[in-house]
Prior knowledge:
The complex is a heterodimer.
Chain A: H1 2-20, H2 25-46, H3 67-98
Helix pairs in contact in A: 1-2, 2-3
Chain B: H1 2-18, H2 28-43, E1 53-60, E2 65-71, H3 73-96, H4 103-122, H5 126-144, H6 151-182, H7 187-192, H8 194-198, H9 203-217, H10 226-229, H11 235-244, H12 249-261, H13 265-286, H14 292-313, H15 316-347, H16 363-377, H17 385-398, H18 406-438, H19 456-474, H20 477-492, H21 509-526, H22 528-531, H23 544-566, H24 571-593, H25 608-626, H26 630-650, H27 654-675, H28 688-714, H29 722-733, H30 738-746, H31 748-770
Antiparallel strand pairs in B: 1-2
Helix pairs in contact in B: 1-2, 1-4, 2-3, 3-4, 3-11, 3-15, 3-19, 3-20, 4-5, 5-6, 6-9, 9-12, 9-13, 11-15, 12-14, 13-14, 13-18, 14-15, 14-18, 15-16, 15-17, 15-19, 15-20, 16-18, 16-19, 17-18, 17-19, 17-21, 18-21, 24-28, 25-26, 26-27, 29-30, 30-31
Membrane topology (chain B): Multi-pass membrane protein
InterPro entries (chain B): CPA3_Na-H_Antiporter_A (IPR050616), MrpA/MnhA1/PhaAB (IPR005663), MrpA_C/MbhD (IPR025383), MrpA_C/MbhE (IPR046806), ND/Mrp_TM (IPR001750), Nuo/plastoQ_OxRdtase_6_NuoJ (IPR042106), Proton_antipo_N (IPR001516)
Family (chain B): Belongs to the CPA3 antiporters (TC 2.A.63) subunit A family.
Amino acid sequence: MEFIMAVLAGILFTTGVYNLLQKQLLRIIIGTGLISHGAHLFILTMGELKRGAPPVLTEGIEKYTDPLPQALILTSIVISFGVTSLLLVLAYRAAKINGTDNMEQLRGNDYE
Amino acid sequence: MLVAVLLPFILAVFIPFLSRWKEKLHPGFFVTLVPVVIFIYFVRHIGSGFEPVVQEYSWIPSLGINMVFHLDGLSLLFVLLISGIGALVAFYSIYYLHKSEQLGHFYVYFLIFMGSMLGVVLSDNVFALYSFWEFTSLSSFLLIGFWNYKQESRYGALKSMLITVFGGLSLLGALIFMSELTNTTSIRAMIDQQQLVLNSEYFPLILSLLLLGAFTKSAQFPFHIWLPDAMEAPTPVSAYLHSATMVKAGIYLVARYSPMLSSSEWFFIIVSTAGIVTLCWGSYMAVRQTDLKGILAFSTISQLGMIMAMLGFGTKAAVFGAVFHILNHATFKGSLFMVAGIIDHETGTRDIRRLGGLMTYLPITATLAVFASFSMAGVPLPFLNGFYSKEMFFESSLHLEASAAGFSGFMMSVIPYLAVLGSIFTFVYSMYFFFGTFRGRAKIDQLPKKPHEAPIGMLVSPMILVAGVIIIGLFPFLVNGSFIAHAAEAVKGTALEEKHITFWHGIIPPFVMSLTVVVFGAILAISRKGWTPVYNFLPGRLSLNKFYDGLVDRTERYSGVITKGYMNGSLGRYVRLILAAILIVSFAFMALTGGFTVDTSNLSRITAPEIAVAVTMVLAAIGTALTNNRIAAILILGVVGYGLSMLFVLYRAPDLALTQLIVETVTVALFLLVFYHLPKLKKKDQPMSTQVLNVIISVGFGALMTMVAISAHSSKWFDSISEYFVKNSYKLGGGDNIVNVILVDFRGLDTLFEIVVLGIAAMAIYGLIRLKKPKEDE
Lengths: 112, 778
């Protein structure tokens, strides 16, 4: 199963990067969202899947799943939420002020 | 001594405040006090009973970098030059620089230079020496570019910076080599263990790097080209940095390492060749110049070459002559620069073709110039110090101590002739400088200003220097045993008997050489106009400057082309380049090290629910890339997120599942709030090649991550630290939910910073929403 999950994470990265390389801001933000999903799955897969009980101490259970990746992912989820929200608002302002969300048109004028 | 070195730096901090009142009191007065104090502090060391002094202050003891100040005869000579000439130049600058100039800047740079130069000659620690060394380059750059509105100033400043810093880095290389070989950072300790360096296989490299540093700094051929352009600096700076002190830092370095290096035959060959060639080329080129300061610049180059050559000879007489000439050169060249500054100041031009006949207008200046330039020429008169060191040069060139075989044998036979040749041209440019300016027909009406004698304040400093010329000339024993002999001793590394300096030795070969110089020099000086076309053949079109310009020009152009090639302002392109680089490096590394491993022994079972969720996620993820509908894209992204939380449930991560569920809901809501304000998604209109590239990069990246994930799962090199958290969660953290305990207890600070990040994001978002649209007309 771990290998399948690894492939799934890879596909999430693929689609994420593909969206990231597009021109429109909305697609780029969707791309970052997909990449962070992929990263979470990636971290989870590096450990062992489905061995032992959920990591909540309970009488009589000796074997728990690895709690460390979960702690990492929990942090990451929250951070990526913050990043996504910031990007969204940034895109909103950029589109509002410049009248476009096309990255090619948002280039500076120095390069013309 | 630490105080002495730091004093200029400390005052430099206060200069900007002092220069606020520059209308009332010229800040130069304060600045003059500093070198005067330092001079008085050090001058008490002069005397026949001089003993080297060492003072140590720890700076970065863990790296072996300490401030160790070592005052021996050589350092003393330089310290007195730096502070003595420094005081005179600072005083001279009060009258030279008008109050409307940016005096604050000038004196800050000036003091920084003085402090660093003192540091160079007093440091015993090689890294401290190197730091001070680079500081002198930096302050020289700033001072040359002082009139930075002039294009020539900026050009000259950049040139000197590039060349001297290039040499500085070579020097650093040599110093690192030596300190690694001898396992010390102290110059004295290195010299004590010189065999370690001399017998090392790296010795040729060390020698060439060290000499590269010295030659660039001391403007030796072919690195001399920066010095004439450095003449764009204000004249006090030229007199101080580019004649008396900074350009002698390279000489100092060679002299300092002489006890170690002079036993090498290569040292003799390289240093004497460079010195002799520089002497001849510099004096030959000086006659061609039309700018007074240009003549002096090339003259400085040639005099530095002469000192360098004597250090290369390495005999007792030569070393003695070298240190003696360091002092003499500072006196006569310093005063000549000041004379040039006066002429520039009083007539408005430094072009020797427009000058002439100024003797009647500036009689005092002319008198000073007579003594200084005749001393420079080495005219055999008993009251000119230049003659004594010039004669020592001739004498030492006749008594070289090197193996007579091979190239050094050839060197020995030609050096005396080259010495005479270079000195003939030295005589010619000295006469050219004096007679071209002060004698001949006056062209007063063509001058920008009506010439008159300089104010007394400007004359004081060159007067003192010329007095030095005459006093040393008349009474050489005053500086001989008490001062010069100690310096020579430090260079030679062994005790020297005091050399007896007298004017008249009888008709001996050196005197004949001097006479030859005078006779041929006089002939060439008189017939100068007749033979100047020779410059059309040599150097003719050959120009080191053109080579330098071409090099700088090409570097700028090609780096510009390369940078413009990838920095075209398109962020998409940057991301593509970054990702492609990551892919290439990672795959190459994986292939080279065999990093990709698959271990199927430790896998969990495949179950239907997981497969179902995974397939849904794959379809949804691909959907985001294909759809052109905003709402659809957002909702499909939501599907991926919810699928992920399903997986978290299946993989027994309840906290993750909950958090993911909430965050995904809020994110989708946010997307739906914002998308309305964003333009509709358009069909992808990128060119086909870019689209193909995008697919390749993204598939490659996905494949890379998959491979890394599989390898990471398959190879466990260390035990996981997770067991620690499982065991201690309740004992240390007092909680049953291990993930929560990790977050709020074991890694509590991380979580705190995470909250900070969120807080910053929240503030930024608030700010962005409240931000008013800028008015169009602004």
